[in-house]
Write a structure and sequence with these properties.
Blueprint lengths: L1 H15 L5 H11 L7 E8 L2 E8 L2 E9 L4 E7 L2 E6 L2 E3 L3 H18 L10 E11 L2 E10 L11 E7 L5 E8 L5 E13 L2 E11 L9 H6 L3 E7 L2 E7 L4
Length: 246
């Protein structure tokens, strides 16, 4: 009987072991969406009347935002070396507070534009929370947090991602942020773009009726129709040019 209890415990332990780790799920998600080409690529797109460009080369990057005005073109450049703003050809001197504000704004658009690419950055911490059903379909629910070292000014933000079990593709995401008074957002796919076999996403952007909710239950609030549609996140004129290794 004693040995029988050990066998039952061992079988129970095996059955509780997740089918995949959070790392394996994210790796499959990136690969299945064709996003691994971003390691060495040139990407451009338009978002809310501005043009964005991302030059990536195996860890080195330059993120551009081009803002047209009536008098001059404003260009923001965020790279491994820091942030710079130009009015025409002239570099603008900025306060540290303004640099941080503009850096976060540029980085945020580029970060969301290529998800789930970027979830393997060194500062990212991954945790498989559970498997859940949304609208009758099965999803892996993964929590993403960040190390303070290398996680940027928003290292204390928390993200949730839902990957479809059948395909490992990203379908929903949510995040809890602390800047500008803080808040919670939930995003559902509005449209998929397939550009040269690479999956890009537009989103419907929602918020809860109150901040006083259980963030980890926001998928349930979405299913119950308890979220408010606040905006759409739409990419236009997407162009991707993978670069060959030398």
């Amino acid at each position: 009987m004693r040995h029988f209890r050990y066998v039952i415990f061992f079988i129970g332990f095996i059955s509780c072991k997740p089918e995949y780790t959070a790392q394996e799920i994210i790796d499959k998600a990136i690969q299945n969406a064709g996003l691994d080409v971003f390691d060495k690529s040139e990407l451009t797109f338009d978002f809310r009347k501005n043009t964005y460009a991302a030059l990536r080369n195996n860890g080195s990057y330059q993120y551009h935002r081009i803002i047209p005005t009536d008098s001059v073109v404003v260009k923001d450049v965020l790279s491994n070396e820091g942030f710079q703003r130009f009015f025409g050809e002239n570099k603008v001197e900025l306060s540290e507070k303004k640099v941080n504000q503009l850096s976060n704004a540029v980085n945020s658009v580029h970060y969301f534009s290529v998800l789930p690419y970027g979830l393997n950055d060194k500062a990212v911490k991954k945790k498989l929370v559970s498997t859940v059903k949304i609208k009758g379909d099965d999803f892996y629910k993964i929590e993403i947090t960040f190390n303070e070292n290398g996680g940027g000014d928003d290292h204390d933000d928390v993200f949730l991602y839902w990957f479809r079990k059948e395909t490992f593709l990203l379908e929903y995401l949510a995040y809890k942020y602390h800047t500008d008074g803080g808040g919670i957002r939930f995003r559902d796919i509005k449209k998929e773009h397939n550009i040269n076999g690479i999956r890009f996403l537009d989103y419907k952007n929602f918020k809860p009726k109150t901040k006083d909710i259980d963030f980890y239950a926001i998928d349930s609030l979405y299913e119950e129709g308890e979220l408010i549609h606040v905006s759409d996140i739409e990419l236009e004129n997407i162009k991707i040019k993978p670069q060959k290794n030398n």
